[in-house]
Structures are given as C-alpha cells and as structure tokens.
Amino acid sequence: LAKTTQPISMDSYEGQEVNITCSHNNIATNDYITWYQQFPSQGPRFIIQGYKTKVTNEVASLFIPADRKSSTLSLPRVSLSDTAVYYCLVVLSGSARQLTFGSGTQLTVLP
Amino acid sequence: EAGVAQSPRYKIIEKRQSVAFWCNPISGHATLYWYQQILGQGPKLLIQFQNNGVVDDSQLPKDRFSAERLKGVDSTLKIQPAKLEDSAVYLCASSPSGRGYNEQFFGPGTRLTVL
After folding, report:
1. Per-residue confidence of chain B (115 residues) as pLDDT tens digits?
2. Which of A19, A41, B51, B69 has the greatest number of CB atoms lying within 10 Å of its CB?
3. What is the rounded distance in angstroms from the CA atom of residue B6 to the CA atom of residue B1?
4. A65 to chain B, minimum CA–CA distance in Å?
5. Is A101 an 8 Å CB contact of chain B?
6. Shortest CA distance to A79 belongs to which of A51, A108, A40, A39?
7. B88 in helix, strand or coil?
8. Could B104 and A96 be called an inter-chain contact, meaning their C-beta atoms sit closer than 8 Å?
C-alpha cells in the first residue's frame, strides 16, 4: 500500500481557501486518492475521491497532477465548522479495499 | 437513511476484564469493518467482513480480540482480557459492496477506557 505524507497541522481564517497537499510517491496504477474528514467524537466521513486531473463536488475539489505522486484537497471559503482532521488515503481498487489512515492534518479555522 | 449504529458509546473497565461492542451497519451493506483509533492517530483496521465471512483479520490481536457477524448483519467485537493499551475508540464502518472501491460509512464509535 502506498504511504501518504501530509502536514500535521494547518491554521486558516474564516472565508479563506484552504489547500492541503498530500504526497504519495509509490501510488500504483489502480489506486484511487481519497480524502476523509473527522470531527471530534465522530467517525471519519468521506469527502472526495479521484484518480487523475480534477474532481469537484459540493464540499471540495481534488487536484491530481499527471504523475499522481501528490494531490491537493481544496476547501473553498472555510468556516469554523470545517475545523477537523483531514485524512489523505490511497485506496487500492479491487476487492481488498482496506483504508489505511495516517495521522492526518489537523485544520483549525480561526475567526 | 439511518447511519451505522454502535453501542455503547462509552465504556470504562479495569484491566483483565472483558468487554463487548455492538454494531448495526447500514441496511443492505455487505461489508463491515472494525477499526481501532488510539488518541492522536488515524483509525487502524482490525477486521473486515464480507457478509458473514472474514475477509481480513491480519491486524486483529487474536489472543484477546474476537469478532463475529452473524447472519451477515449485526456484528460484535469482544476483548478478553483487556489491557491498558486497548484504551481507544472502536469504530465500525460499512460499505455497500465487497468489490471495487466504495465509500465507507462510519459509526460514532465506542470510547473504551481501560484502568
């Protein structure tokens, strides 16, 4: 399984755009890049998943360059409620769909 | 749509005691997972079920942990006897299918404190 590296923590202010970058140098051809969000006292929640280029949903955008060795989660106009831990995962496609979580990035949004 | 249910939400026991956690996945989800999350770390997979069969239990400490999923629906995770290092949040998750990538839906977890 590809190992991911992401910043331990980030601070931002309300209304700003936040970009969290994750590196995954050993990503394999059939791997997907997936981001989960976790609030205190809750289980992780799926945010977005992508394979290449750009994916956008109502919550976030995910940018993946052509070499796929890194990816960037972009959160537009964050609010205080976006304060959470964000996990970048590389998910092997196929039947063995383990989620291997790292330590994640603690995002703190300040007023 | 109802989410993944877990009980109890909190449990405090003394070391060497036994404890059991219960999980009810989202209706129709074939795959069920148990994760252990130690404070400050990401969740770690303990065991994965596909219907009522075990797909992966390679990280389950089998000398003290056991899990079952009867009838392919609810699941229980048991620890016997508990150690101090078992203090953690135990998360249950489910997903619709065992093939290909599918989003996992997590329950709120059970916070276990071993004294």
Report:
1. 689 999 999 999 999 999 999 999 999 888 899 999 999 999 999 999 988 899 889 999 999 999 999 888 999 999 999 999 999 999 999 988 655 566 889 999 999 999 9
2. B69
3. 16
4. 21
5. yes
6. A108
7. strand
8. no
